Amino acid sequence: MALIVMKFGGTSVGSVEKIKNVAQIVSNVKNEGNDVVVAVSAMAGETDKLVGLVSEIAPTANPREYDQVVATGEQVTIGLLALALQQIGIDAISYCGWQMGMITDSAHSKARIEEIRAERVHASLKEGKVVVVAGFQGITQDTQDVATLGRGGSDTTAVAVAVGLKADRCDIYTDVDGVYTTDPRIVPEARRLPVVSYDEMLEMASMGAKVLQTRSVEFAKKYNMPVRVRSTFKLDDEGTLVTSEEDTNMEKVMISGIAYNKNEAKITLTRINDKPGLASTIFSAIAQKNVNVDVIIQNISPRGDGQTDLSFTVPKNEVHKALEALESLKSSQQIGDILVDEKVAKVSIIGAGMQSHAGVAAKMFTALANEGINIMMISTSEIKISCVIAEKYTELAVRALHEAFELEKE
Amino acid sequence: MALIVMKFGGTSVGSVEKIKNVAQIVSNVKNEGNDVVVAVSAMAGETDKLVGLVSEIAPTANPREYDQVVATGEQVTIGLLALALQQIGIDAISYCGWQMGMITDSAHSKARIEEIRAERVHASLKEGKVVVVAGFQGITQDTQDVATLGRGGSDTTAVAVAVGLKADRCDIYTDVDGVYTTDPRIVPEARRLPVVSYDEMLEMASMGAKVLQTRSVEFAKKYNMPVRVRSTFKLDDEGTLVTSEEDTNMEKVMISGIAYNKNEAKITLTRINDKPGLASTIFSAIAQKNVNVDVIIQNISPRGDGQTDLSFTVPKNEVHKALEALESLKSSQQIGDILVDEKVAKVSIIGAGMQSHAGVAAKMFTALANEGINIMMISTSEIKISCVIAEKYTELAVRALHEAFELEKE
């Protein structure tokens, strides 16, 4: 007998019929002899509706009251799912964040979990009950206020609950059936991975693969909690297991997946003085505007004149904030022209196995070159190589890389 | 400076615009220098929507989970109203039942208030905040579960909060502008009463005048909390003050209002043995079915044969339950025929002043007789005289009584 935490997102509980379907899935797992805790999101559309009401009244809402309103979406779902379970003969009880002991800090609407005081949950499990908990919410330590973990915090709740309860596994049910080698809409041959490591999943998530929230994967990695991503609609299917590198038998696989991201823009600063401290000045100014900088490239002075060019990428919707930060540097003549290119994309190969394989980068560059795709910027991490290219080549690049690394083969 | 509890029902907070209007009303009272606590219902329609979801999933829902779901309606409103207040510069904070210390028993969906631990509310008031509390809900003493007070429990919450906080007054804002001498739809000359006593209000409420919930009036009476009924839409208007008899200057006014009720049916049992104990047998059997009996009339044996007739009224929708209870008595020949008349109505005159005035009943019967209305049953209390008549005469009777007692005059 295992203790399993199951998580269902808003689409999976988006109607009465779907809630009944989820109850059936939960009852199957329970009837196999497991202890079960279920974390659920608000019914699809409900959170948006509540956020809409809030912003109609207060465009910049007090976050405590925002949370008070928005947290009700999950409270509705937990009650309904507990009832649906009871209807099919499964003893069940629902707990809101404050009832399940989900203690957070006071950063309303993006609160971080501090502790789980799970006495009530444990007691209910001991009574043989399925415990249904509200995703996305907790209670602040100091003031006993309702706090939400921010949009999409339900995955994180589920993993945190699994960690807090020392569960054997956390199963995230979603509308995709696992993690793929790349976006199947671009590469029909994309293959579902039976297993990926936390780090690979993080790199994929940060590149826009929306299977799991980044934060939930970080949490799972930190506490080494195995997470299974599986489909609400294909129950026989094992999905993809996200787990530690040691458990993934990684030496055999070099590259696990190809990711891409069209949401970044490239900013190039020309003729900046190549002297210590200027990069610090530039990126401090940008950081003060809360802009996330990703790839950064600085060449050595190409003209031998003590001046250089500096390029970096930022999210497209933060370009204007970055430019605000750079304007003052320009007027004080610390930098020359500012060039913005929004028609770029970032294509990445991801794989824990590349650490022990030589020639991976060369193979990537060759595959892109064979298609005539120019590489504007390159950045690497231990398990990822990213190239910034012209946006129009994105799909071509993804297909070429998928083929070059033979990801369609098991 | 006074401490005032204000209550707004679902219609008054039924949209974003209406919530903003309520915020304006609250800010006026706050800016006059008062401490203010506001109790609100769910937005009109929301509770029905939630109840609908619950019953789609579980027609006979576990009441704990029912409460978990249904209580969210008020939680949304309190957050939105707090935000609307903040938008117009009023410092405000919202509290759910469990946050405001509204402790109830465990009778889910019809819980009774046991205690109010109002430390948080007091602390917030001391900080100069307007406190917005959720009507209709609390937290169970034993299990820390969400409990609702039953449909319409918001009036009771407001009065209980007022009592718990030792407020100076509880203002119930509603879509009518006070308590009238009778239903203005029947008697256009009906006059709004500036003041009524708790007992009169109770008699009126029990007769179907839906201005205040019976339970909230009982609560107010028990703790002598003055309640003002006033309109959300006519702010200059003082409405009607419901208060203790001593404060109403009642000796001057004999009759305060005329009430009517078309929801009762008359049941007559013929040829029952006029011996001790049979009435007890009959009404015990009916009580076991949870049927509320109202007027009861037993004549002395009209035929001098030791047998009598017994008539009583029950709510129309409980007639079938009453008949079930009576069937067994009939088959054991303890009673004769059972006659049901659903086409009856009860018309009442209500007034604390009738205690010290003679001739009130005679005046009532004369007024009805003058219109050719036959009286089927009569019952009296200290401050009320009710007559059961044929339903078709209801409006005629109400108008005749309103005129006879000159209620249109101040």
Question: What labels describe this entry?
Answer:
Carbamate kinase, 410 residues
Produce the secondary structure layout.
The structure is a homodimer of 410-residue chains.
Chain A: E1 3-8, H1 16-31, E2 35-40, H2 46-57, H3 63-70, H4 72-87, E3 92-95, E4 102-104, E5 113-116, H5 119-126, E6 130-134, E7 137-140, E8 146-148, H6 154-164, E9 169-174, E10 195-197, H7 198-206, H8 214-223, E11 227-231, E12 240-243, E13 257-261, E14 264-273, H9 278-288, E15 296-298, E16 307-315, H10 319-331, E17 338-341, E18 344-350, H11 360-370, E19 377-381, E20 384-390, H12 394-404
Please provide a written account of the structure.
- Two copies of one chain form a homodimer.
- By secondary structure, chain A is α/β, with parallel strands linked by helices.
- Chain A has a domain at 3-175: Carbamate kinase (3-Layer(aba) Sandwich).
- Helices cover 33% and strands 25% of the residues of chain A.
- Chain A is built from twelve helices and 20 strands.
- In chain A, a hairpin with an 8-residue loop joins strand 15 and strand 16.
- In chain A, helix 1 (16-31) packs across helix 4, helix 6 runs parallel beside helix 8 and helix 11 packs across helix 12.
- The mean pLDDT of chain A is 89.
- Chains A, B: This is Aspartokinase.
- Chains A, B: One of its GO terms (cellular component) is cytosol.
- Chains A, B: It comes from Desulfurispirillum indicum (strain ATCC BAA-1389 / DSM 22839 / S5).
- Chains A, B: It is an enzyme of class 2 (transferase).
